[in-house]
Amino acid sequence: MSENLAATITAIRFEVWDVDAHAFGFHIRTLRKARGLTQEVLAERARLSADTIRRLEAGSFSPSMKTLVSLARGLHLRLSSIMLSFELGELPIERELLEILAGRSEAEARVGLEVLRAVFEHGLAGSRAPPASASASSD
Questions:
Q1: Are residues 87 and 49 in the same domain?
Q2: From CA 138, how far away is CA 86, in angstroms rounded?
Q3: Are 16 and 47 within one domain?
Q4: Mean pLDDT by 10 residues, the chain (139 residues)
C-alpha cells in the first residue's frame, strides 16, 4: 500500500471515530434547551445525576452506552436520532416528526395525525401555494 493511501485511510479513520467531547456536550445542551428542560429535569427524566448531565454537557467525559441510552430516554429521542443530528448538525424534519410520535399510544398518534391534517388542509401551517384550480384565472 502506498504511503499516501495509508495516510488517507488513517485520516478517514480518525475523522469517523474521533468525536470531540466538547462539541458533543454542546449538542446535548442544545437538544436539552430546545425541549425547555433544565439540567435537573433532564437528569430526573433520564434517571441520571444532575452532575452527570453537567459533566456531559461540559465535555469532560465520554459517556458509556448505558448513559447515552438513559440520556436519549430523558430527551424523548432515539439514540440514533441523537447521533444523526450530531453528525449532520441538525435533525431532519421527517425524523423530528417520527420522534414526536415515538412512544405514543395509537390513540395519541391518531390525534396528532388529525391535528396535522387539519393544519395543512386549512392553511394554518404558513404560506403555501394555492390549489391549481384556484390559480387558474376565470374569464
A1: yes
A2: 51
A3: yes
A4: 63 58 92 92 97 96 93 91 84 77 82 87 61 44
- Cα–Cα distance between 24 and 52 in angstroms, integer? 14
Sign of CA dihedral 95, 72, 87, 3: negative
Number of domains in the chain: 2
Q: What does the alpha-carbon distance between residue 29 and residue 36 come to, in Å, rounded to a whole number?
A: 11
Tell me the C-alpha distance between 98 and 44, whole Å: 24
Encode 33-66: b = buried (16+ Cβ within 10 Å), e = exposed: eeeebebeebbebbebeeebbeebbebeeebeee
Same domain, 64 and 42: yes
Q: Which residues contact 135 (CB under 8 A, 6 or more apart)?
A: 129
Q: How far apart are CA 133 and CA 2, in angstroms?
A: 64
106 and 77, same domain (yes or no): no
Placement of cell 441538525 in the chain: 90
DSSP state of 131: P
Residue 67 near residue 52 (C-beta atoms within 8 A): yes
